[in-house]
Design a protein that fits this description.
The complex is a heterodimer of chains A (157) and B (207).
Chain A (H helix, E strand, L loop, with lengths): L10 H11 L6 H8 L10 E8 L6 H7 L5 E6 L4 E8 L4 E8 L4 E7 L2 E6 L5 E7 L3 E8 L6 E3 L2 E2 L1
Parallel strand pairs in A: 1-9
Antiparallel strand pairs in A: 1-2, 2-3, 3-4, 4-7, 5-6, 5-8, 8-9, 8-10
Chain B lengths: L6 H15 L3 H9 L3 H21 L4 H17 L10 H23 L14 H4 L8 H12 L3 H10 L7 H8 L6 H23 L1
Helix pairs in contact in B: 2-3, 3-4, 3-5, 3-8, 4-5, 5-9, 7-10, 8-10
Classes of the chains: A alpha+beta (157), B mainly alpha (207).
C-alpha cells in the first residue's frame, strides 16, 4: 500500500503524478515535422481556400442523399480560379481527379507526405494525379499562360 | 546534468537562447513571415505539446494525431501575416487542431473505420526519465494511470490538456475543448475529486 495513500494526495500532488504518468509531450518526429513547415511558405502564390468538402458537416444533407461510400469531393477557389477535386482510393495511395476553371493548360503539383505528384491539365482543364499519400495535401497550379500560381489550402486526406 | 567547467559557456548560450524564447508571439510571427527559421522553431516549441495534446485528447492514434499537428502548423504557415491577435495564437492553434481532429473522427465514422488506437501510449518507467524525481514510484504510476482511464472521457480530456507543458492558459484550454473558460476550474476540481474516489476504491480492492 502507498504511504500516505494516493487517494489522500493534494490536487497539486495528483496533478504532478498525472504529469509524470499520463501527460504526453509531442513526439520528436512530430516536433521536427512542424519545425520544417516554414519552408512550405510561398507568399507569392495566391491561396485557394476550401469552399466545399463533402466530408464537412454542412454538406451532410447532400451526403445523405448521395449515400455513403462515395468519393470525397473538395472545391477550392480564389476570386478567379476554382479547382474541384475528387479523391478516390488507389492501390497504395489516393488518386485525385480534378478540374480547373477557367479552362487553361496548367501544371499541377500535389505536395504530400512522401513528396510531390505531378500532372498537366487537358484541354478541358481536367487532370488526374496518382500516388498521393494520405495526410496533409495541397495542390499547386501554375497556368501555362502565366500569372500568379494558385495554391490550395493544406487539406487532410 | 550539471557539469562543472562548462558553466560559463552554458550561461552565455542560455542567455542568448532565453532572449529568443522570451520574445512575444507578435515578434516571432513577424520574423517567421520574413523567413526566420529560428523564430519559427521557437513558436513551434512553445505550442507543439499543446497541439499534440489536443489531437490526442480526441483519442486519435499517433498517425492521425501527427497529421492533425502537421496540418495545424501548415495552416499557420499559410496565415502567418494574418494572425490578428498574436497573444491569442495558442487559442488559434488549438481551435485549428480541434477542427482537424473532429474532421478526422467524422470521416472515420462515416467510412466505418475505427480510430480507436490505444489512448495512452506505453510510457517508460517514470523513474528512469527523471532520476531526480523520486516522487513517482512505478507502482504508483500504474495505479494513477489505471485510475485516470476510469475517469469520464470529459475529465480525461480536460486533465490531459491541462497537463501540457508549458501550461496552457484557460483561454487555450477552453478553445481546445470547446468549453467556457469559467467552467474549467470547477470542472478540474470535480475531475480530481473523481480521481481521488477511484483511487480510494482501487486501494480498497487492490490493498
Amino acid at each position: 500500500m502507498a504511504d500516505p495513500p494516493l487517494a489522500d494526495s493534494t490536487a497539486e500532488h495528483l496533478s504532478a503524478l498525472l504529469r509524470r504518468t499520463v501527460a504526453e509531450p509531442s513526439p520528436e518526429h512530430v516536433r521536427e515535422a512542424a519545425r520544417s513547415t516554414l519552408s512550405w511558405r510561398d507568399p507569392d502564390a495566391e491561396l485557394a481556400t476550401l469552399v466545399a468538402d463533402s466530408a464537412d458537416p454542412d454538406e451532410q444533407l447532400e451526403l445523405a442523399v448521395r449515400g455513403g461510400g462515395q468519393p470525397r469531393l473538395l472545391a477550392f477557389a480564389t476570386a478567379d480560379v476554382s479547382i474541384d477535386v475528387e479523391v478516390t482510393d488507389g492501390p497504395t495511395a489516393a488518386i485525385l481527379v480534378g478540374q480547373l476553371a477557367p479552362v487553361g493548360a496548367a501544371d499541377i503539383a500535389v505536395d504530400h507526405r512522401n513528396g510531390v505528384a505531378e500532372a498537366t491539365t487537358d484541354e478541358l482543364g481536367r487532370f488526374r494525379v496518382d500516388g498521393v499519400a494520405r495526410g496533409p495535401v495541397r495542390l499547386r497550379c501554375t497556368l501555362r499562360s502565366g500569372g500568379t500560381p494558385v495554391h490550395t489550402e493544406w487539406t487532410l486526406l | 546534468m550539471r557539469q562543472s567547467g562548462m558553466g560559463a559557456t552554458r550561461v552565455l548560450v542560455d542567455a542568448a537562447e532565453s532572449a529568443m524564447t522570451s520574445l512575444d508571439n507578435r515578434s516571432l510571427l513577424a520574423a517567421a513571415a520574413n523567413g526566420d527559421q529560428r523564430s519559427w522553431e521557437v513558436l513551434v516549441d512553445r505550442y507543439t505539446n499543446l497541439v499534440w495534446a489536443v489531437a490526442r485528447s480526441f483519442r486519435l492514434g499517433p498517425t492521425d494525431a501527427a497529421d492533425v499537428s502537421q496540418a495545424t502548423w501548415l495552416r499557420l504557415v499559410e496565415h502567418l501575416t494574418e494572425i490578428r491577435e498574436p497573444e491569442q495564437l495558442g487559442s488559434w492553434l488549438v481551435t485549428t487542431a480541434r477542427r482537424e481532429a473532429l474532421a478526422i473522427l467524422r470521416r472515420a465514422a462515416r467510412a466505418g473505420t475505427p480510430t480507436g488506437e490505444p489512448w495512452l501510449l506505453e510510457r517508460p518507467d517514470p523513474d528512469a526519465e527523471s532520476p531526480d524525481d523520486r516522487a513517482v514510484r512505478a507502482d504508483d504510476a500504474a495505479t494513477v494511470r489505471r485510475a485516470f482511464l476510469r475517469l469520464p472521457v470529459n475529465c480525461q480530456r480536460l486533465l490531459h490538456v491541462l497537463l501540457v507543458e508549458p501550461a496552457p492558459t484557460y483561454a487555450e484550454v477552453g478553445a481546445a475543448l470547446g468549453m467556457p473558460v469559467g467552467s474549467i476550474g470547477p470542472t478540474r476540481a470535480r475531475c480530481l475529486s473523481s480521481l481521488r474516489r477511484i483511487l480510494t476504491a482501487q486501494g480498497a480492492h487492490d490493498g
